[in-house]
TrEMBL record:
It comes from the Eukaryota. Keywords: Hydrolase, Metal-binding, Metalloprotease, Protease, Signal, Zinc. GO terms for molecular function: metal ion binding; metalloendopeptidase activity. GO terms for biological process: protein processing. Its cofactor is Zn(2+). Gene3D superfamilies: Collagenase (Catalytic Domain), Neutral endopeptidase , domain2. The lineage of its organism: Eukaryota, Metazoa, Cnidaria, Hydrozoa, Hydroidolina. CDD domains: M13. It comes from Clytia hemisphaerica. Residues 1-26 form the signal peptide. Pfam families: Peptidase_M13, Peptidase_M13_N. This is Uncharacterized protein. InterPro entries: MetalloPept_cat_dom_sf (IPR024079), Peptidase_M13 (IPR000718), Peptidase_M13_C (IPR018497), Peptidase_M13_dom_2 (IPR042089), Peptidase_M13_N (IPR008753). Residues 525-754 form the Peptidase M13 C-terminal domain.
């Protein structure tokens, strides 16, 4: 991944103009920059779009800095001055700005207020399937109706699940926890006691398998369960929510609240006990067994796993037998201890726990009486107030719950097929350059070169969006089971939950879908999936300042999105990626985190690197690690010691940055060789090579508080942007040549580190 989390008081007007490719230029028109210059043929693009982009890039620069001394401040100083960190946030970056712009556009698409042209005019934006996502958003925005319906939706939901012990008419004696658990696991993605899922079989990447794992708890961190104050707040919150769901108003509300309070207190005493048997991620191991063997292993608990799993899947007409294999992702001990804990717990506590977990996840979709109390609790727990507008919240829910359909909307309005094709061609050129580079280096053995080149040639490219989103027949068939009404927000969420479960469980009858994506199309990020050897570049990142459609010079896009493509490719050959072969199979177990041990092991030893190549690779990566270890951040407003960058923790990303920009530059120069020198932008007085590196840097512009920098240095695998830029560029011979940096300049040290 090239960027971490994604989720200006006044945006630069130019970015708004540039944002969608149709506003930059008619996407379908294949106009060459050379046709757009004036008659003087002075090598400068005079087209209006070139002028606008030049203005945008110039505003991002700070000419007070020498690019050969501090390229980050030179390239991003102007951007930093014209932007500020939004309220309640600790950082803001060019990628955050792009993500925000994507979201703003999507809200316009959902609300029907977008007035621009369509990138794609062949596919309807009002088909029945597309209307489902628009109707969902509309149902969320209908606050008047949501308020009018009050607690009725959640009451109906509770009744369908068999009732709740907080109601006076609930009969705990006839209630069966096993049947209730079967029902909630079958119909909803329920995190109760344990989870039932379907995922890729660790021993056969082409097949799916049922997985069993521990369930999440009511609070986001285990530590909260040892915090008495947090538990008190949780009991108070759950009591008030339960009171709001009662069928009838009690005669004595004070007494009833005391009764419910005691019941909820018992619920969280039970959940605290669960937290004590919880397996941390670092200690998880997977076990692959048949249901029959799992029954034998946990027979002391008298819980029939075969019955539980077959009942769940039977709800979707899927036959499961005792010989069916499952993967237990937590541990046998957790499963056994969990069921023994259940057996030792009174039925009314189990009933209240199950129903609380179901209700808790649905509170956000109710009226203000519920959501306001939920927001108060969240602030009490985390200290962060909730201040999103209704529009922001409804967009968030729509995006989270119907992400692929939101993505389908995005690509119909804001993404062009010509851009997808161009990026795919760029990726092919970059892969070719990587292969040529590997062939030319002298520190890798011939055997290792062959393994690396085979893997590079086998990389799967996924650019823009999954193809089914533009196949109207497949698209409508895929989502036909979702029932969406523009006046039933709560029921829409329930319908989607059931649909989600159905799609998940149906995977057990199918082979693994090689076309499945790890992200939604409108996401502003990029990924390398090490266990699939695939690169994913969503349409959301193929916008300025990462990608500029024609007629803009290719130099900028090669520097920006070209670096992203090269970065993700190089991840396949960094400290982790090198341990996986062309099929995403693990070559060696050494030095892998416990969670990676469920990965398929490679059988072909031809994929392994030679010991000599590994040793030389380690020597080079150690040099890069030491380089970044020397970087420090000093807080000018504090007497505290400076913060040291962790060269080990950021090593994989630093390798990818260096390899990415090098391959992108070589690919660009090869493109120029085939197509001729480009026109450059007006006003900037920059060569094509300089524009390449400025384009590379300006997509990394970033603002951050000292607190955010401190947290990032502790936890983030990316170095702060200032060092990603200066550290990478100081190792680039091509950069120093482009900006004519002297041999004594900071950005052109004599000793440079090169991995790829």
């Amino acid at each position: 991944m090239i960027f971490k989390a994604l989720y200006s008081s006044k945006m630069l007007q130019i970015l708004t103009i540039l944002f969608i490719c149709v506003n930059l230029y008619s996407c379908g028109e294949d106009k060459d920059v050379s046709t757009l210059a004036n008659d003087e043929n002075d090598g400068i693009c005079k087209d209006n779009h070139c002028v606008r982009v030049a203005d945008y890039m110039k505003k991002g620069l700070n000419d007070a800095y020498d690019p050969c001394e501090n390229f980050y401040e030179y390239a991003c100083g102007g951007w930093k001055k014209s932007h500020k960190i939004p309220e309640k946030k600790e950082e803001y970056s060019a990628i955050n700005e792009l993500s925000d712009n994507n979201d703003k556009l999507l809200r316009q698409f959902l609300e029907g207020t977008y007035k621009g042209e369509l990138c794609d005019k062949k596919h309807p934006t009002d088909s029945p399937t597309i209307m489902k996502v628009k109707d969902f958003y509309t149902s969320c925005m209908n606050e008047e109706l949501i308020e009018k319906r009050g607690s009725k939706p959640i009451r109906d939901f509770i009744d369908k699940l068999g009732g709740w012990d907080v109601d006076d008419d609930f009969d705990v004696d006839t209630w069966d926890w096993k049947k209730t658990l079967q029902r909630v696991h079958a119909e909803y993605p329920a995190e109760i006691f344990f989870t039932i899922d379907v995922d890729v079989d660790p021993k056969n990447k082409k097949k799916n398998i049922i997985t069993i794992d521990q369930a999440k708890l009511s609070m986001p961190q285990i530590a909260y369960f040892t915090n008495k104050e947090a538990l008190v707040k949780l009991v108070e919150y759950s009591t008030e929510i339960a009171m709001k769901t009662l069928k009838e108003k009690p005669d004595d509300e004070v007494d009833k609240k005391k009764e419910v309070h005691q019941k909820m207190k018992a619920v969280f005493e039970f959940e605290t006990a669960i937290s004590k048997i919880f397996i941390p991620k670092s200690a998880k191991r997977f076990t692959r067994v048949t249901l029959e063997k799992l029954n034998e292993a946990t027979k002391v608990t008298q819980f029939n796993w075969t019955e539980h799993i077959t009942t769940i899947f039977k709800d979707y007409d899927i036959e499961i037998s005792k010989d069916t294999h499952v993967v237990v992702l937590s541990s046998d001990s957790y499963i056994e201890e969990m069921i023994n804990l259940i057996k030792a717990t009174p039925k009314n506590v189990l009933s209240n726990y199950i129903m609380w977990k179901m209700v808790k996840d649905m509170v956000a979709f109710l009226n203000k009486d519920f959501t306001d109390r939920n927001n108060v609790f969240r602030k009490e727990l985390t200290g962060v107030p909730h201040k999103k507008s209704r529009k922001e919240m409804c967009f968030k829910y729509t995006d989270e719950i119907l992400g692929p359909l939101v993505g389908a909307l995005f690509i119909r309005y804001a993404f062009c097929l010509a851009d997808k094709q161009e990026v795919e061609e760029m990726m092919e050129l970059i892969i070719d350059e990587f292969i040529q580079n590997v062939d030319d280096v002298n520190w890798i053995s011939e055997h290792t070169k062959n393994a690396i080149i085979k893997k590079a040639k086998a990389v799967v490219m996924k650019v823009g969006y999954p193809n089914y989103l533009f196949d109207e027949t497949v698209f409508s068939q895929r989502y036909k089971e979702i029932e969406i009404h523009d006046n039933k927000f709560f029921e829409n969420v329930v319908s989607i939950d059931r649909f989600s479960n159905h799609r998940t469980f149906k995977k057990i009858t199918l082979d693994v879908d090689p076309h499945q994506w790890v992200s939604v199309p409108h996401m502003a990020n990029a990924f390398y999936v090490v266990t699939k050897n695939e690169i994913v570049i969503p349409a959301g990142i193929l916008q300025p300042p990462f990608f500029y459609a024609k007629p803009l010079p290719r130099s900028i896009s090669y520097g920006a999105i070209g670096h992203v493509l090269g970065h993700e490719l190089t991840h396949g050959f960094d400290t982790l990626g090198r341990k996986f072969n062309k099929n995403g199979e693990l070559i060696a177990k050494r030095s892998l985190q416990p969670l990676m041990r469920a990965t398929v092991l490679a059988k072909n030893k031809d994929d392994q690197w030679s010991k000599e190549s590994i040793a030389r690779f380690s020597s080079r990566t150690n040099s890069l690690k030491e380089q970044f270890n020397k970087y420090r951040i000093t807080d000018e407003h504090s007497d505290k010691n400076s913060l040291q960058i962790d060269g080990e923790n950021t090593l994989g990303e630093n390798i990818a940055d260096a390899g990415g920009v090098k391959m992108a530059y070589k690919a660009y120069r090869n493109w120029v060789k085939d197509n001729g020198e480009e026109y450059v932008l007006p006003k900037l007085n920059k060569t094509s090579d300089e524009l390449f590196f400025i384009g590379y840097a300006q997509k990394e512009c970033h603002l951050s508080t000292m607190k955010a920098l401190t947290d990032a240095i502790k936890d983030d695998v990316h170095a702060p942007s200032m060092f990603r830029i200066t550290g990478t560029m100081s190792n680039s011979v091509e950069f120093a040549k482009a900006f004519k940096c002297s041999a004594t300049s900071t950005m052109n040290p004599q000793n440079k580190t090169s991995i790829w």
